[in-house]
């Protein structure tokens, strides 16, 4: 796996491109007029996206009908010397459709316990919690 990062303005805006030509913009979001996400926001996005792919894949194999899927990820950071790494994260999933709530919860648990490479990478240093809502009800 490889990405290429290119600076695309005179400040902090970078384009990150993967081997398939897909890209995202990273920027220093503390500056006015930023045009990308911060690297730390991209970590939250990666956790939500990785587990989201797992959950949708598992539920599709179980023939669950997902009409809507949304996730919110929040991270708490701590100061360590001059850096501010994540201490903990909470990822909340909102699913709508003809979905068995027990299957949705199990899919989420499997993602974080077994399949999500991003959360497994962070796991030694970051406490990652999750919760699931199906059709508006917490599971």
Q: How does CATH name the architecture?
A: 2-Layer Sandwich
Could you give me the name of the CATH homologous superfamily?
Answer: K homology (KH) domain
Low-confidence stretches: none
Order of helices and strands: EEEHEEHHEE
Overall tally of structural domains:
1
What is the residue-mean pLDDT, rounded to a whole number? 97
Percent helix among the residues? 25-40%
What do these coordinates show?
It comes from Chryseobacterium gilvum. Pfam families: OsmC. This is OsmC family protein. InterPro entries: KH_dom-like_a/b, OsmC/Ohr_fam, OsmC/Ohrsf. With about 140 residues, the chain is of the alpha+beta class. It has a single domain, classed as GMP Synthetase, Chain A, domain 3 (2-Layer Sandwich). Helix content is about 30%, strand content about 35%. It has three helices and seven strands. It has helices at about 40-60, 100-115, 115-120; strands at about 5, 15-20, 25, 65-75, 85-100, 125-135, 135-139. It has a four-stranded mixed sheet with strand order 4-5-6-7, covered by helices on one side. Strands 1-2-3 form a three-stranded antiparallel sheet, with no helix packed on it. Strand 2 (about 15-20) and strand 3 form a beta hairpin. Helix 1 (about 40-60) crosses helix 2 (about 100-115). The longest helix has 23 residues, at about 40-60. The N and C termini lie far apart (about 35 Å). About 20% of the residues are buried.
What's this model, at a glance?
The chain is an alpha+beta fold and 139 residues long.
